[in-house]
Write a structure and sequence with these properties.
The protein is an all-alpha fold. It has one domain: Tetracycline Repressor, domain 2 (Orthogonal Bundle), CATH 1.10.357. Helices cover about 75% and strands about 0% of the residues. The protein is built from 6 helices and no strands. Helix 1 packs across helix 2 and helix 5 crosses helix 6. The protein is elongated. It starts with a helix and ends in a 9-residue tail after the last helix. The relative contact order is 0.14.
């Protein structure tokens, strides 16, 4: 596979995940339609299924990716040679910046910890 094709595949997968995060953060699992995610991502419904075997798989991957990206913030702070209180300050600043820069992802991660994986918002 060429780098260009790899890049296009990663871009589509990222767009699908981003669209899924946005939609899952606003609706319950059962209210979300794969067609809606595909439309938001600018791809066809079939393309979603090229990357994810089911809506459940997409939800789980979105949660996994969101959680990993969020936790990377803390890993970077823990590895820092700064004094303890400076690291705490850094964690707080990074957390706030993450919430601002990745609102849908942050909402999705936070909401997911307060409800079972397939449950939705009221």
């Amino acid at each position: 596979m060429t780098k260009e094709k790899d890049s296009g595949m990663i871009d589509k997968r990222e767009r699908i995940l981003k669209a899924a995060l946005k939609i899952f953060s606003c609706k319950s699992f059962h209210q979300v339609k794969v067609e809606e995610i595909a439309s938001q991502a600018g791809v066809g419904k079939g393309t979603v299924y090229e990357y994810f075997s089911s809506k459940e798989d997409l939800l789980q991957e979105a949660f996994k990716v969101s959680s990993e990206r969020y936790m990377d913030i803390f890993d970077r702070c823990l590895e820092s040679p700064l004094p303890f209180w400076e690291r705490v300050k850094m964690i707080i600043e990074l957390h706030i910046n993450f919430l601002k820069d990745h609102e849908e992802m942050a909402r999705f991660v936070m909401d997911s910890h307060s409800r079972p994986l397939g449950a939705g918002r009221a």
